[in-house]
Amino acid sequence: MSDPVIMPKPSKLRLAVLMLLVVYPFVTGILYIIMPLTEGWALWKRTALLAPIMVFSIVYGIAPLIQRHFSWFIMRLPRRKAA
Protein backbone atom coordinates (compact mmCIF):
# COMPACT_ATOMS: atom_id res chain seq x y z
CA MET A 1 0.00 0.00 0.00
CA SER A 2 1.39 3.42 -0.92
CA ASP A 3 1.61 6.37 1.39
CA PRO A 4 -0.99 9.09 0.89
CA VAL A 5 0.20 12.24 -0.84
CA ILE A 6 0.29 15.16 1.57
CA MET A 7 -0.58 18.43 -0.09
CA PRO A 8 0.75 21.64 1.44
CA LYS A 9 -1.78 24.12 2.80
CA PRO A 10 -2.24 27.21 0.63
CA SER A 11 -0.98 30.46 2.10
CA LYS A 12 -3.84 32.89 2.52
CA LEU A 13 -1.34 35.68 3.13
CA ARG A 14 0.44 35.02 -0.18
CA LEU A 15 -2.88 34.87 -2.04
CA ALA A 16 -4.01 38.11 -0.39
CA VAL A 17 -0.77 39.89 -1.34
CA LEU A 18 -1.03 38.74 -4.96
CA MET A 19 -4.70 39.75 -5.13
CA LEU A 20 -3.87 43.18 -3.71
CA LEU A 21 -1.04 43.69 -6.20
CA VAL A 22 -3.38 42.94 -9.12
CA VAL A 23 -6.75 44.23 -7.87
CA TYR A 24 -5.56 47.65 -6.65
CA PRO A 25 -4.32 48.89 -10.05
CA PHE A 26 -7.34 47.29 -11.74
CA VAL A 27 -9.81 49.08 -9.43
CA THR A 28 -7.91 52.35 -9.83
CA GLY A 29 -8.02 52.06 -13.62
CA ILE A 30 -11.74 51.31 -13.62
CA LEU A 31 -12.34 54.30 -11.35
CA TYR A 32 -10.43 56.58 -13.75
CA ILE A 33 -12.72 55.38 -16.54
CA ILE A 34 -16.01 55.46 -14.60
CA MET A 35 -15.61 58.72 -12.67
CA PRO A 36 -15.80 61.09 -15.67
CA LEU A 37 -18.67 59.08 -17.17
CA THR A 38 -20.69 59.23 -13.95
CA GLU A 39 -19.97 62.83 -12.95
CA GLY A 40 -22.87 64.17 -10.94
CA TRP A 41 -24.20 60.71 -10.03
CA ALA A 42 -24.98 59.89 -6.41
CA LEU A 43 -22.38 57.72 -4.72
CA TRP A 44 -24.79 54.76 -4.46
CA LYS A 45 -25.37 54.86 -8.24
CA ARG A 46 -21.62 54.85 -8.96
CA THR A 47 -21.19 51.97 -6.55
CA ALA A 48 -24.09 50.09 -8.16
CA LEU A 49 -22.24 50.34 -11.48
CA LEU A 50 -18.77 49.65 -10.09
CA ALA A 51 -19.53 46.68 -7.81
CA PRO A 52 -20.72 44.20 -10.49
CA ILE A 53 -17.83 45.16 -12.79
CA MET A 54 -15.33 44.54 -10.01
CA VAL A 55 -16.87 41.34 -8.65
CA PHE A 56 -17.31 39.61 -12.00
CA SER A 57 -13.88 40.72 -13.22
CA ILE A 58 -12.19 39.38 -10.10
CA VAL A 59 -14.17 36.13 -9.85
CA TYR A 60 -14.05 35.19 -13.54
CA GLY A 61 -10.82 36.87 -14.65
CA ILE A 62 -8.29 37.98 -12.09
CA ALA A 63 -8.58 35.22 -9.47
CA PRO A 64 -8.36 32.32 -11.96
CA LEU A 65 -5.32 33.91 -13.64
CA ILE A 66 -3.58 34.37 -10.31
CA GLN A 67 -4.35 30.81 -9.27
CA ARG A 68 -3.20 29.40 -12.61
CA HIS A 69 0.05 31.34 -12.84
CA PHE A 70 1.01 31.60 -9.17
CA SER A 71 -0.34 28.38 -7.61
CA TRP A 72 3.25 27.31 -6.93
CA PHE A 73 3.74 30.47 -4.84
CA ILE A 74 0.39 30.23 -3.04
CA MET A 75 0.90 26.51 -2.28
CA ARG A 76 4.56 27.06 -1.24
CA LEU A 77 5.86 24.70 -3.94
CA PRO A 78 9.05 24.98 -5.97
CA ARG A 79 8.42 26.84 -9.22
CA ARG A 80 7.90 24.54 -12.21
CA LYS A 81 10.21 24.98 -15.15
CA ALA A 82 8.58 25.87 -18.47
CA ALA A 83 8.66 22.97 -20.91
Report on this model:
The protein is mainly α. The chain has one domain. 70% of the residues lie in helices and 0% in strands. It contains 2 helices and no strands. It has helices at 12-37, 43-74. Helix 1 packs antiparallel against helix 2 (43-74). It is elongated.
Secondary structure elements and their pairing?
Layout: H1 12-37, H2 43-74
Helix pairs in contact: 1-2
Task: Tell me briefly what this model is.
This protein has 83 residues and is mostly helical.
C-alpha end-to-end distance: 32 Å
Main pleated sheet = none
Level of helix content? 55-70%
Q: How many discrete structural domains?
A: 1
- Structural class assignment: mainly alpha
- What's the total count of β strands? 0
Basic shape? elongated
| Overall pLDDT confidence | 90
Order of helices and strands: HH
Question: Uncertain runs with pLDDT below 50, 5 residues or more?
Answer: none
Properties at a glance:
about 80 residues, mainly alpha, elongated
